[in-house]
TrEMBL record:
Gene Ontology terms: biological process: cellular oxidant detoxification
Domain of life assignment: Eukaryota
UniProt-annotated stretches for the region Disordered: 1-21
Protein name in the entry: Uncharacterized protein
Residue ranges with Polar residues bias: 1-10
InterPro entries, A to Z: LSU
Length: 101
């Protein structure tokens, strides 16, 4: 048998392999484009979630301020009420003392 010499010409099996490689590359490009669209959508979703979180945090801060103001007002009302009760208690004690004498 004589040694075989390659002339560099593409054989049918090489052409099939090259076509498969091109097809695979196209599939990968398509998949890559699909993944890039998904990433873009996820980034947009993440941005929206961050904006919602910032809005919620700002609302929480406003509510905390309002709660603090409401608590301070409640303390003032309670102190005024307690003062009025003590004043009425003194008046009642004076009235009882005056009636007893």
């Amino acid at each position: 048998m004589a040694p075989s010499v390659s002339t560099g010409a593409a054989t049918p099996s090489r052409r099939k392999g090259a076509a498969a490689g091109v097809e695979e590359a196209e599939l990968l490009r398509g998949r890559n484009a699909e993944l890039e669209r998904e990433v873009a959508a996820l980034r947009a979703e993440l941005g929206a979630a961050r904006r919602r979180a910032e809005t919620a945090e700002e609302a929480e801060e406003r509510l905390c301020v309002q709660l603090g103001e409401a608590e301070a007002e409640a303390v003032e009302i309670a102190r005024a009420y307690q003062g009025r009760v003590e004043e009425l208690d003194r008046e009642l004690a004076a009235a009882r003392a005056a009636r007893s004498s």
